[in-house]
Amino acid sequence: MAQQRLDKIIASTGRYSRREVKTLVREGRVLVDGRIAASAEDKCDPLTARISVNGEELFYREHTYVMLHKPAGVLSATEDGRGETVLDLLAPEYRKIGLFPVGRLDKDTEGLLLLTDDGALAHDLLAPKKHVDKVYFVRTDGALDDADCKAFVQGITLGDGLECLPAKLEILKSDAQSEALITIHEGKFHQIKRMLASRGKPVVYLKRLSMGSLTLDEGLSKGEYRLLTAEEIKNLRESGQFAQGKAGADK
């Protein structure tokens, strides 16, 4: 990997700002490969250099990937004057490194939300032409039926003329309050709610279960989060690449 400035490498962990790194270096509290760093502007390879601050070794990540079990009542935004955002649920070190939500969940929608600073992966997961599956559990007011399933497969055109891509509706329970799994490949504003409202079956509860290969860790309580494992990151990248190829084959 190309060499980077020491202050940039340390700041990327979210533990310290670049200004703080400069002070730490001046005070002799930063070691690189066992030697006291001479300058915050010194360059080294972040993947091979052993960097420690105050005796604690730091580990460099080019990108950060966080799985959050989003609760209702929290906004899928990096900042918003109207209320609490998903970034407010994270520890300070994660709020400093430029994470953003990959796609948005409505304020009252729960479930899987990926936060990262990897713009390329976010694009692969969100672009409709990539055909990456997003699966939701939904509860509706009204009985879902086969006609609703067929309408989803054909692609629903909303009242304002917005055309939704073909989607999948799998009915789990059909009665006064129905339950179903919905799979879509895009994420237009209030899309699932508007699709079901157009069928006369308004949504009363919505939860995202998965995005591509990434499935919500049900061990996470609402509002809790964790870093993705190396395998989850690898599979997520591969699912985006596969989806792109699949989209091309479907044309």
What does this protein structure show overall?
It is a single chain. With 251 residues, the chain is α+β, with helices and mostly antiparallel strands. The chain has three domains: 4-58, Structural Genomics Hypothetical 15.5 Kd Protein In mrcA-pckA Intergenic Region, Chain A, CATH 3.10.290.10; 65-128 and 213-250, 2-Layer Sandwich (Alpha-Beta Plaits); 133-211, 2-Layer Sandwich (Alpha-Beta Plaits). It has seven helices and 15 strands. The strands form three sheets. Strands 7, 8, 9, 10, 11, 12, 13, 14 and 15 form a nine-stranded mixed beta sheet that branches. The protein has a four-stranded antiparallel beta sheet with strand order 3-2-5-6. It has a two-stranded antiparallel ribbon with strand order 1-4. It is elongated, with a radius of gyration of 22 Å. Residues 244-251 have low confidence and may be disordered.
